[in-house]
Write a structure and sequence with these properties.
Blueprint (H helix, E strand, L loop, with lengths): L5 E6 L9 H11 L7 E5 L4 H7 L4 E8 L9 E5 L17 H10 L7 E8 L12 H20 L1
Parallel strand pairs: 1-2, 1-3, 3-5
Antiparallel strand pairs: 4-5
Helix pairs in contact: 2-3
């Protein structure tokens, strides 16, 4: 149930090692006092489910993991839909990608957000089973949480 105008959405799967960074960050952000007024939701799916989740919000901040050619584990990026890069869960291989989902939502008359920001965290391993982050990402987690918290508050 939507209670706020802003949604902070953590994407990822907690049993796929570093892929769980989005949900863990969102769960931790929801506990930090002084955070912005927002609904905090986590999801292990992308594509069309995201269209349903973001429907009705004015502003959405998506937190997901990403692989880039030059990034280091723990690097944090702030992306807009206009400079969208394929984060791990916004570009699922078994579903439509994020931008297609947004366009479809508009065509179907959904109330798509006016503003969408994507906070992406560089990871090492997001396809191997494991309930723990890689040691490199786990070691940097407090720093990652601090950076993401600042970005959430300024976006």
């Amino acid at each position: 149930m939507k209670t706020k105008t802003t949604l902070i959405l953590g994407l990822g799967n907690a049993i796929l090692s570093d892929d769980g960074i989005g949900p863990r960050l969102v769960n931790d952000l929801s506990k930090i006092s002084g955070m912005i007024e927002a609904d905090f939701i986590t999801s292990g799916s992308g594509g069309l489910e995201i269209m349903e989740l973001i429907n009705g919000y004015k502003k959405v901040i998506i937190i997901d993991c990403i692989h880039t050619s030059s990034g280091k584990p723990g690097d944090v990026y702030l992306l807009k839909t206009s400079d969208f890069k394929k984060t791990s869960n916004l570009s699922g291989i078994h579903d439509v990608n994020f931008l297609t989902s947004l366009e479809l939502g508009k065509v179907l008359g959904y109330n798509m957000p006016d503003e969408i920001n994507i906070i992406a965290v560089e990871v090492i391993e997001d396809m191997e089973f494991g309930e723990r982050f890689t040691s490199m990402l786990e070691d940097k987690y407090p720093e990652i949480l601090k950076k993401v918290s600042k970005l959430v508050n300024i976006t």
